[in-house]
Design goal:
Layout lengths: L4 H50 L7 H4 L10 E6 L8 H4 L3 E2 L2 E12 L3 E2 L3 H10 L3 E7 L6 H11 L10 E3 L9 H19 L4 E5 H7 L10 E4 L14 E8 L8 E6 L3 H7 L3 H7 L1
Parallel strand pairs: 1-3, 3-5, 5-6, 6-7, 7-8, 8-9
Antiparallel strand pairs: 1-10, 2-3, 3-4, 9-10
Helix pairs in contact: 5-6
Length: 285
């Protein structure tokens, strides 16, 4: 059956009006769309730049800051390592000198959250003691795992011994949507469980702004503090601290690529007295 010509003309007219309307709409809003897209790209670029180069756990802009600078007035130097350093030549590393001083201590990543063990931990932990370093082990805090599970997971895999540094809790991220008191209670849960096992106060590692904002309660001042603060001549944190991670751009024989440099705020004797079992030794003397 043949359709009436009137209907066909009417439909073509509607299509023409619709297409004209859409064309006008796109022309009118295309500039706005370009602006929104451009702003979104800029925001994404700024976030990526901060995350990878500027943020406390990023790679940082070494092209701007240059080679590692060494804080003046400190003689006890150390490093912290993980699987990111790959295979280490410990025979070369044991003779490393930083600013005329020997490398004294090595702190090694052991665990993360409640399921991940650093793939190089076992070998690194063994080699550090075999080559004469004071060694330590750190746990990287995860907001996705419960505090008790993380504490017992760390204790299961990091078997610290007499002469090792106290256990370390590396905490750098605040969980979204969690009350500050609840977060601090979780952190204290980890610290208390681990302290009960080794009878020493664990060391808290974080950058100083994080501590001031999220771990400023007086109870946290009872724990040795390891501060991360890069490319500055002195620590801005006004409280007490034991260790200072002053750069992530260190270079040493035996390690390919960059490694974190740390200093201890005290003498070598003080560092030895911080280790597990040191009080018993002093008592026997």
């Amino acid at each position: 059956m043949t359709k009436p010509k009137g209907n066909s003309t009417s439909k073509r007219g509607k299509k023409s009006k619709n297409s004209h309307f859409l064309s006008a709409f796109y022309k009118k809003n295309s500039r706005l769309a370009w602006w929104i897209g451009g702003i979104g790209i800029v925001i994404l670029y700024i976030w990526a730049f901060y995350y990878f180069f500027v943020g406390p756990t990023g790679f940082r802009w070494r092209a701007l800051y240059g080679d590692a600078r060494y804080p003046q007035g400190y003689e006890i130097h150390g490093i912290d390592i993980s699987h990111y350093q790959g295979d280490i030549n410990w025979s070369k590393l044991r003779h490393s000198i930083i600013e005329g001083c020997p490398l004294r201590f090595v702190i090694i990543k052991s665990t993360e959250g409640s399921t991940r063990v650093d793939e190089k931990f076992k070998d690194n932990f063994y080699q550090a003691r075999e080559h004469g370093f004071i060694r330590g082990a750190y746990h990287f805090w995860s907001n996705k795992s419960k505090a008790r599970e993380q504490a017992y997971f760390f204790l299961e895999h990091a078997k610290l011994e007499k002469g090792d540094l106290p256990p370390v809790l590396d905490i750098e991220h605040y969980p979204q949507g969690v009350d500050l008191e609840d977060f601090q209670r979780d952190v204290l849960t980890w610290l208390h469980i681990v302290e009960d096992r080794y009878h020493v106060k664990p060391i808290i590692y974080t950058y100083f702004k994080f501590k001031e904002k999220y771990l400023s309660a007086p109870v946290f001042d009872d724990y040795p503090y390891w501060i991360a603060h890069y490319y500055v001549d002195k620590v801005e944190y006004k409280g007490q601290w034991k260790f200072w991670q002053h750069t992530d751009a260190g270079k040493l024989p035996g390690i390919r690529g960059y490694v974190d440099f740390d200093i201890y705020n005290g003498s070598y004797y003080d560092l030895k007295m911080l280790t597990i079992g040191s009080e018993e030794e002093e008592w026997n003397l």
